[in-house]
Each structure stands twice: as structure tokens, then as C-alpha cells.
Specification:
heterodimer; A: 330 residues; Ubiquitin-like (UB roll); Alpha-Beta Plaits; four-stranded antiparallel beta sheet; 23% helix; 18% strand; globular; B: 454 residues; alpha/beta; Rossmann fold; 3 domains; five-stranded mixed beta sheet; four-stranded parallel beta sheet; 13% strand
Chain lengths: 330, 454
């Protein structure tokens, strides 16, 4: 099937969503997605950041769709024409959605562990206004411990339902869900019961904001001061392929390997995530590729290499001794 | 005197019992449909009648039925949406209380037309008395072989169940209703797939309003063509209107579509005029979610034609100067009513009832409610009106289900038509808490046509 997104045509399998078709093209025309997660069945359609305009329904029925549609849950038709960043209407609607997502968000990025790898931060940076028009108290919740390793801070939650779908997928019984409705909705603490499960830690990885955080990592470090390294180990429960986040010589955090859209390649078990934090446990594969746009790559190994000018100037060589040593060590 | 099809025998003694209902010619439609017509014929009759959904959207019922997927070996369901909770609408409750067998007869005919062997009536949880009435009526009908196996010896089986609702306005949205009926949290589903393809338990399902299903009975009795003769243009048949507010005779009225709004408000046959000799200020014509109109635009369209109670005429002028038929909740405001307070009240309702699934509605309804609360209590700013319009625009059309639109329209329309009253609440904040703005110019004759031609 042929689908044209912002003037770029791509051939996709029938049944592909507009969002996934856009991801096959890649680049700036990929709509942002806060709630859709390709590994989670049933996710998507809720956050409305991925709204796009369908200017031509299909080859057979060229009528445009009357409303903007959620690209993550709308399947492509042959000959469909979609406008994302080329439609001012879409940009306007997306700005509106981002504003709505932010009015009750605490904006406590300076003390939030997710800062630096937060999708809402990226989204707000790209589409948000500098000042809020919301002049009322923001909603707040008490922090909740979900087991001894995970903390839920509902105040930051944007209700993407990803963690709910994760809990649904890793357990056979329905242990999770949403309590209350409207803007009082909160992630149910029944999710606590999923903590017995070996894969419960994955709710941290799927959370697009800082609502679910790793208690073994909380307040240990800003993410841009840590060094991500790809590693694996033999694990009898999961694939064992992870990203280790180093601070100096210590592994301070283990996460699943995330792709460019922030989605993990495979879920990892709690043993890998919480209990194996020694370099000796792992086989290091090499530094992790991080987008040059990400704040994390500010301290990435490749960019840590001293500049060519430093190598030719003895004075600067002396000043950057530590960096040179680290380079040879790695 | 207009023709009555649904409420014709409403005052007959014992109409709520099977015997009383049969004495007035009840269950003739079941006999006629099951014994002489094929299911496709029934659908054809309903299509010919031009019946449009009475729940609010006004989608042609016959068309909806013909869209139902019919794969082999998969059950099909008919679900009756009796989760009537729109502020200002109470027609379905009246119908179910007074004449439950009409709904049951309609359910049998409609289920037969769709080939459903199990059908549900999803009744709002707060309507416990109506649930009991319906269950009693179903038991009566079952007793005489109108429900159950082999109905009237025709070989058609139908089981009819009443399901009390989960207690949320959102469960009246058809996909949320199906979720709730399945025993899940009543969150609207993301469409497509539409219920006609994958509805209840993943099977093809039709969801219809109580009044739409009840209207099938006169359609079968008299024939679709006869039914289509009543009414005006594409608004055929009769419609129940729940009239409330500052009128002399509030209540449920059955009107032939096409009655002038002015006649509906002022004639003794219907509302009987504004109570206490006051003057009309504004009307919400179709339940809380449709745009509000000031008196002058209620009685006349922008082209200075008389406005009629029909789907087309009420929406004449689009959202700029028109409203919608909606579910027929006709709320009348006299000159003593405060539009700001009313708008806040509606916004508070939608804030409370938003399911919280998608971001614009979850956050936006709360935001609008807070701003309107501030305006009503004299802490507003002049910029608030533009803010409200902007927020409502950002909700409208960007949500999963129509609740977002329903929350946005009343606010946007109130500011469009009553902006000076909102501004007066800012400039005369202290006075606004003690006194109403009054009628002002809202009933003035409309300006001459020149504007409309542009």
C-alpha cells in the first residue's frame, strides 16, 4: 500500500498505522507519541499528540477525514495522503494538547529523575509555550511506593495508560488499572500486586514522564552525567540485553535498550534491572548511540574525545590529561 | 393538534401492564413483523420512514442497521441505550415508566430485523424504579410467549436483558456503554472499528436510543411511507421533547417535527408560555451539550425565517447562529436567569463526567470550569472570554468521543452570543454577585439580512 505523509510516499504493509508508516520514513515528519507503545497491545489513541490530518482518505474514496485523527490508531489505506507538520491545523491542535498536558504537570524537572530523557520535556520544548495561561492550583497526589523498588508519583503522570498495559501484559490476572475519572484519575495502587512479577520494573521504562521511577536510582544522579553502555548477560528469565548507566566506575542504573522513539527493544527482568549492578556481571558491548540532540550525549563518549586542536597543543594536552587517560582506558 | 404515535395511549388505564397495552393495539407490530415480513423488509421499512436517531446525533436509523456486519456463525447484538443522563433530557425515563411494553415491542421487532437473539437494555443505574418496571414487563411478555424461544410460533428466539448502568454520563456514549456492559471500566473505545463491525464482545452490534427503538413500532404498524409523511423534509415523524425551565407547563411533549419553536414555547398545547409573565431570554434546544441561543435567534433563523423544531431548522446557520436538535432537552431561560452561571453549571457537569482518558478533555474541561467559576463569582478578567473560546477550540474535535465537543459547544456558544453579559460580570463584579444582567438586547429583532448574504 502506498501512503503519502507530508509529501513523502512510502510503501507499507496493509494494516500499518499512519504513525508506523511515518516511522518507516523517519525524520521530522514522525508525529510525537506519548501514549502509543508498539510493544504494548491496545496502547495509543489517548494522549492526542499524534493527531494528523488526512487530506485524502484513499484512492477509492478520496474524501478527507472530517476531523484530525490519532495517527497511532488509524490504519493506512491505499493512496492515503496525510499531513503532519505541513498542516497548520495539526500544529495548532498539537500545541493545544501539549498545553493541556502541561497545565496539571508540576514542572518539577529540576528535581525529577526523568529530566533529560523525558518525552514530555521534549514535547514541551518543541511545541509548548514559554508561559502558562493556567492560573489555578495544580493537582497533586501523595507519592506511593509500588514495592520496594518502584515509586509512583501521580502528580507527574499524564495518564498515558502505558504502565497499565504493561501490567496487563506481564501478568495473567488483571491487577492494575485506573481509579476515579476525569482529572482526578489516578493509576491504581493495585498495580502494587504486580510487583511480585519478575517484569514489573518495566513500568519504569515505559513511563514517558517521571511518574514511575526506579528507587535504586532516585536522586543518585542527573541522567546527563551518566554514561550509557550497551551490555548483556546470560539471564534465564529475559533476553539479558540492557543499557548500563555508569557514573565513574559504578553502574548506577540498568534499563532496557530503547530505540529512537524511546521504546524498549525487549522487556528485561527485575533481577537484571535491580540486582545486578556490578560491571563483572555484564559483558560490555560498547558505548550506546545517543541522538546528538539529546542532552545525554553532552557527556557521551564519542564527544568526550578531546578535540583535534587539543591533541596538537601540549598545553591543552596537559590540561585534558584525564580525558586522554579515560579514552585509552576504554 | 399534532399526531401522537408514541404517547397516543399514554393515559389509557393499565397501559403499563401487558393487558392494558394489548387493549390499545399493542404487540401488533411484533405480529406483523415476525409473521408477514422478512428481517430485510423491516430494515427497508425503517429506511423508508427516514427515522433519525433520537439520542442526539440524528444519524438515520435504517442506514445504521444496514451497516451491521453479518458474518456467518457470529452472534449479533442489539443494545438499547437507556443511559439517559443529559441535563435537560428526561423523555426516555418517562417512556419507560409509563409505557414499558412499547420499548419491549420495539426491541423485539428491531432485534428480529437485525437477526439478534440476545438483546440488552442498558438503563442508567440511578433509574432503579424503571429497571424494575422493565423487568416486570419483560417477565409478563415472556409469560405469553412474546419473548424467549420460538416467539409466536415463528421459530424466532430472543432473550432480552436489562442491565443497570455503572453510574456515569460517559456510559451513554455507545462504545463506553459496550465496555460497561462487558463489565469493564466505561471508557469510550477508539474508533474505528465501529460497533457495527466489532461491538459487544467483539461481535457486530447496533446501539440505539430508547425513543428510536420505540419509534419502530408505529413505523411497522403504519408502514414506513406513512411515517415519512409526518414531519418536514428529512426530519420525519414525531419526537419527544423534554421541556423544562421557566415555562408554565414543563414536561414531556410529543411533537410532529416541524412545529415552529415559537408555537412550541407559547401555545397552550405545549409549554404554555414563559412562567410568571416574564420574557424569554435564551433557549438550550437539545440538551446541555448543544449550543445555547438567545431569544431572537431561537425564534427566528439568521435569515429572519421562523425557526422550526426539526433537525435542519434548529441547526440552520451552523454554529454561528444555530444550534442542534440533540436529544430533545428543551431548556428555557427567562430574563432572570444568569447565562454565566448556567454555563459554569454545564462546564462543572462535563468536568465531573469526563472519563479522563484523553488529554484535551480531561484537562480542558477542568480548566474551563475553573475559569467560569472565577467569572461567576466576580474574580474574572477581560481576557478570560478569549481564553475560554481558545480552550474550547482546542478540545473540540480533538478527543476520542463526542464528550469533548459536548463540553466545548455550550461554552463557546454562550460567549459567542452573550459576550456582553460575561464582560459585565468582569466590569461590575460586585453587582454581578447580587443581581442579574437581565434581558438586555437578547430578544431584539434581528438585524436585516445584509449580514447573512456576505
Amino acid at each position: 500500500m502506498k501512503v503519502t505523509i507530508d509529501g513523502i510516499t512510502v510503501d507499507v504493509e496493509p494494516g500499518t498505522s499512519i504513525l508506523n508508516a511515518a516511522r518507516q520514513i523517519g525524520g521530522d515528519i514522525v508525529p510525537p507519541a506519548m501514549c502509543y507503545y508498539s510493544k504494548l497491545e491496545g496502547s495509543g489513541g489517548k494522549c492526542r499528540t499524534c493527531l494528523v490530518k488526512v487530506s485524502k482518505g484513499s484512492e477509492k474514496d478520496p474524501r478527507p477525514m472530517p476531523k484530525l485523527v490519532a495517527s497511532c490508531r488509524t490504519t493506512v489505506m491505499d493512496g492515503m495522503e496525510v499531513q503532519n507538520i505541513t498542516s497548520p491545523e495539526v500544529i495548532e491542535a498539537r500545541k493545544g494538547v501539549v498545553e493541556m498536558l502541561l497545565i496539571n504537570h508540576p514542572l518539577d524537572c529540576p528535581v525529577c529523575d526523568q529530566a533529560g530523557e523525558c518525552h514530555l520535556q521534549d514535547l514541551g520544548y518543541e511545541h509548548g509555550a514559554a508561559k502558562t495561561r493556567y492560573e489555578f492550583d495544580r493537582r497533586t497526589f501523595e507519592k506511593i511506593d509500588i514495592g520496594d523498588k518502584i515509586q509512583l508519583h501521580m502528580t507527574r503522570c499524564i495518564l498515558c495508560y502505558r504502565c497499565v498495559f504493561t501490567a496487563d501484559q506481564i501478568t495473567n490476572t488483571r491487577l492494575h488499572g485506573i481509579l476515579n475519572r476525569g482529572d482526578h484519575s489516578e493509576i491504581s495502587t493495585y498495580i502494587e500486586k504486580a510487583v511480585d512479577n519478575d517484569f514489573s520494573g518495566n513500568v519504569i521504562d515505559v513511563c514517558p514522564v517521571g511518574a514511575l521511577t526506579d528507587k535504586t536510582f532516585r536522586f543518585k544522579n542527573r541522567v546527563w552525567f551518566t554514561k550509557p553502555v550497551e551490555a548483556h548477560r546470560d539471564c534465564d528469565k529475559c533476553c539479558g540485553k540492557v543499557t548500563l548507566w555508569y557514573k565513574g566506575e559504578d553502574v548506577i542504573r540498568v534499563t532496557g535498550r530503547k530505540d529512537v522513539y524511546g521504546e524498549v527493544e525487549e522487556f528485561i527482568c527485575n533481577t537484571c534491572r535491580f540486582d545486578t549492578k556490578k560491571t563483572a556481571d555484564w559483558t560490555i558491548e560498547g558505548p550506546r548511540k545517543v541522538s546528538h540532540k539529546s542532552v545525554i550525549s553532552a557527556n557521551h563518549y564519542e564527544t568526550m574525545k578531546p578535540l583535534p586542536v587539543v591533541k596538537t597543543n601540549p598545553l591543552l594536552q596537559e590540561a585534558n590529561k584525564e580525558q586522554f587517560e579515560r579514552e585509552t582506558r576504554l | 393538534m399534532g399526531r401522537k404515535l408514541l404517547l397516543q395511549h399514554i393515559n389509557a388505564p393499565g397501559i403499563n401492564t401487558l393487558q392494558g397495552y394489548r387493549q390499545t393495539g399493542g404487540y401488533a407490530a411484533v405480529k406483523k413483523a415476525l409473521k408477514t415480513l422478512s428481517p430485510d423488509d423491516v430494515v427497508e421499512e425503517v429506511k423508508k420512514s427516514g427515522l433519525r436517531g433520537r439520542g442526539g446525533a440524528g444519524f438515520p436509523t435504517g442506514m445504521k442497521w444496514s451497516f451491521l456486519a453479518k458474518p456467518e456463525g457470529v452472534p449479533r447484538y442489539l443494545v438499547c441505550n437507556a443511559d439517559e443522563s443529559e441535563p435537560g433530557t428526561f423523555k426516555d425515563r418517562y417512556l419507560m415508566t409509563k409505557i414499558p411494553h412499547l420499548l419491549i415491542e420495539g426491541m423485539i421487532v428491531a432485534s428480529y430485523a437485525l437477526g439478534a437473539n440476545t438483546s440488552y437494555i442498558y438503563v442508567r443505574g440511578e433509574m432503579m424504579p424503571q429497571i424494575r418496571i422493565l423487568e416486570k414487563a419483560i417477565a409478563e411478555a415472556k409469560n405469553v410467549g412474546l419473548l424467549g424461544k420460538n416467539i409466536l410460533g415463528t421459530g424466532y428466539d430472543l432473550e432480552l436483558y436489562v442491565q443497570p448502568g455503572g453510574g456515569a454520563y460517559i456510559c451513554g456514549e455507545e462504545t463506553a456503554l459496550l465496555e460497561s456492559l462487558e463489565g469493564k471500566r466505561g471508557n469510550p473505545r477508539i474508533k474505528p472499528p465501529f460497533p457495527a463491525i466489532a461491538g459487544l464482545y467483539g461481535c457486530p452490534t447496533v446501539v440505539n436510543n430508547v425513543e428510536s427503538i420505540a419509534a419502530v413500532v408505529p413505523i411497522i404498524n403504519e408502514g414506513g411511507d406513512e411515517y415519512a409523511k409526518i414531519g418536514i423534509g428529512r426530519s420525519t415523524g414525531t419526537k419527544l421533547i423534554s421541556a423544562s425551565g421557566n415555562i408554565n407547563k414543563p414536561g414531556v411533549y410529543e411533537i410532529e417535527l416541524g412545529v415552529p419553536v415559537e408555537e412550541f414555547i407559547y401555545s397552550d398545547e405545549y409549554c404554555g408560555g414563559i412562567a410568571n409573565g416574564k420574557r424569554l431570554k435564551a433557549v438550550v434546544a437539545g440538551g446541555s451539550s448543544v449550543p445555547i441561543l438567545p431569544a431572537n435567534l431561537t425564534l427566528k433563523t439568521i435569515n429572519n425565517e421562523s425557526r422550526l423544531m426539526s433537525y435542519e431548522s434548529l441547526s440552520d446557520g451552523g454554529f454561528a447562529t444555530g444550534s442542534m436538535m440533540g436529544s430533545g432537552g428543551f431548556i428555557v431561560f427567562d430574563e432572570d436567569q444568569c447565562i454565566v452561571r448556567n454555563t459554569w453549571n454545564f462546564a462543572r457537569f462535563y468536568h465531573h463526567e469526563s472519563c479522563g482518558q484523553c488529554s484535551p478533555c480531561r484537562e480542558g474541561t477542568g480548566w474551563m470550569e475553573k475559569v467560569l467559576h472565577r467569572l461567576e463569582y466576580g474574580h474574572g478578567k477581560m481576557s478570560d472570554m478569549d481564553l475560554l473560546v481558545d480552550v474550547s477550540k482546542k478540545i473540540e474535535g480533538n478527543t476520542i468521543c463526542p464528550l469533548g465537543d459536548a463540553a466545548a459547544w455550550p461554552v463557546a456558544s454562550a460567549i459567542r452570543h452573550f459576550r456582553d453579559e460575561f464582560e459585565w460580570h468582569v466590569t461590575n463584579a460586585a453587582e454581578a454577585t447580587t443581581r442579574n444582567y437581565g434581558l438586555a438586547h437578547y430578544a431584539d429583532p434581528l438585524p436585516k439580512i445584509e449580514k447573512a448574504e456576505a
